Structure formats: C-alpha cells, structure tokens
C-alpha cells in the first residue's frame, strides 16, 4: 500500500527541501477509494484527459474537466471492488481491486502464474497455502520444494556434517541431553528426546 503514496511522500520531501511541486494542478482523481463491502477498496489512477473522459463516462457525469473525488468515492462505494475494477478497466481507466492476503491465492492472476501452493505439515490435519517459487520457466524445472525441517529433525546430520562428530559421540550427547531430536508427535506437537 505504501507504494501508492510513495510519489506523494517523495514530492513532499522535495518540497520541504525547497523544490517546487509541479503536480498540484493534476486535477484528477488518483488513489484509493472505498468499495462496497467491509474494508473493501479500489485503486483508481487517472493519468490524462482520455482517462478523465472515460471515468466521467463510467460515472455518468456529463461535461468536461475535473472529476470530483467525492463523485468517484460515491460511485465506488456502490460497487464491489472487482466489479468497479472491471467496469473502469473496460472503459480504459487504470483501476485495481485491493486484495486482502487471504484473497490472493484464489485470484485468477496468481492462479495462472502458480504463485501459491498447498503444503501439508506432518503434524497438521489440513493443508495450508504458502507462496510458490516466484519465477517459473517452461524449459527449466521448478526447484524441489519441501517443508521446513521440524524442530530437532536434522540434529544428527548437523552434528556429523558441521561439527564432525562420530555417531557414537552424537549418541552420547543425546544420552546426556545435550542434543535433542524429533522422534514423534503428540497432538500435533513434536516430541523432543
């Protein structure tokens, strides 16, 4: 969300440093507007006169010139964010529904790009959604993905590879309680021995 106001933040910082702002007369609605539904928003960007004319047409406002942001706000508040986005985009106005994190995996854009995947944790009953690899290539296989190790799951391997310990030394450290390894589970929680 910060990226939507980054230009304004930078412009205000430059203005405080003595540089004049040249975008004050933009006269176009630009920003986030409320949509129908709880905490539902749409980003609208009007870049030029063509976008402004298209926005006026979608909103049903005759004439030319500036569009009052309150008129945009009133219109978007009567429409679901995706519906408003589709109507504005169809008219040529850059617009996008603001998505909540739990909506991202079901959004067609991310589905087509395989941006999310489901994983089942050994101690869980249902799969959970997590990010997939960020870049897919038709000619290169995706890297192997697996769950993160459980607490203590790799204790023996780490002790052998990184510390150079022999199996008998590792066993002795386990017996003394210096090292712990995951050996099973009780109601979803790893049991450390």
Any chance you could write out the topology, listing elements then pairs?
Elements: H1 2-16, E1 30-34, E2 41-45, H2 49-59, H3 69-77, H4 81-90, E3 95-97, H5 108-112, E4 116-119, E5 128-131, H6 155-161, H7 167-175, E6 182-186, E7 189-192
Structural description of this entry:
The structure is a single chain. The chain has 193 residues and is of the alpha+beta class. The protein has 3 domains: 23-98, formyl-coa transferase, domain 3 (2-Layer Sandwich); 100-145, no CATH class; 149-176, no CATH class. It is 34% helix and 16% strand. It is elongated. The chain starts with a helix and ends with a strand. This is CoA transferase. Pfam families: CoA_transf_3 (PF02515).
Task: For this entry, give a set of tags.
three-stranded antiparallel beta sheet; formyl-coa transferase, domain 3; 193 residues; CoA-Trfase_fam_III; disordered C terminus; catalytic activity; alpha+beta; 3 domains; CoA-Trfase_III_dom3_sf; 7 helices
Class computed from helices, strands and strand pairing: alpha+beta
Secondary structure tally, helices = 7
Q: What CATH architecture of the largest domain do you see?
A: 2-Layer Sandwich
| Low-pLDDT windows of residues | 185-193
Please identify the top-level CATH class of the largest domain: Alpha Beta
What's the N-to-C terminus distance? Answer: 46 Å
β-strand number: 7
**How would you characterize the largest beta sheet?**
3 strands, antiparallel
Q: Whole-number radius of gyration?
A: 27 Å
Strand content: 15-25%
What helical percentage do the residues reach?
25-40%
């Amino acid at each position: 969300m910060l990226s939507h106001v980054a230009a304004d933040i930078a412009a205000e910082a430059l203005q405080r440093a003595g540089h004049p702002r040249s975008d004050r007369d933009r006269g176009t609605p630009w920003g986030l507007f409320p949509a129908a539904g709880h905490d539902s928003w749409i980003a609208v960007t009007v870049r030029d006169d063509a976008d402004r004319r298209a926005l006026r047409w979608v909103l049903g406002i005759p004439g030319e010139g500036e569009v009052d942001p309150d008129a945009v706000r009133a219109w978007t508040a009567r429409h679901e964010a995706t519906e408003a986005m589709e109507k504005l985009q169809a008219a040529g106005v850059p617009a996008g529904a603001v998505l909540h994190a739990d909506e991202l995996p079901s959004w067609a854009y991310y589905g087509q790009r395989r941006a999310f995947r489901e994983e089942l944790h050994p101690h869980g009953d249902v799969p959970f959604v997590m990010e997939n690899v960020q870049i897919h290539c038709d000619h290169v296989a995706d890297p192997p993905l697996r769950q993160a190790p459980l607490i203590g799951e790799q204790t023996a391997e780490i002790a052998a590879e990184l510390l150079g310990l022999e199996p008998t030394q590792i066993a002795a450290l386990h017996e003394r309680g210096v090292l712990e390894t995951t050996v099973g589970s009780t109601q979803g929680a790893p049991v450390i021995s």
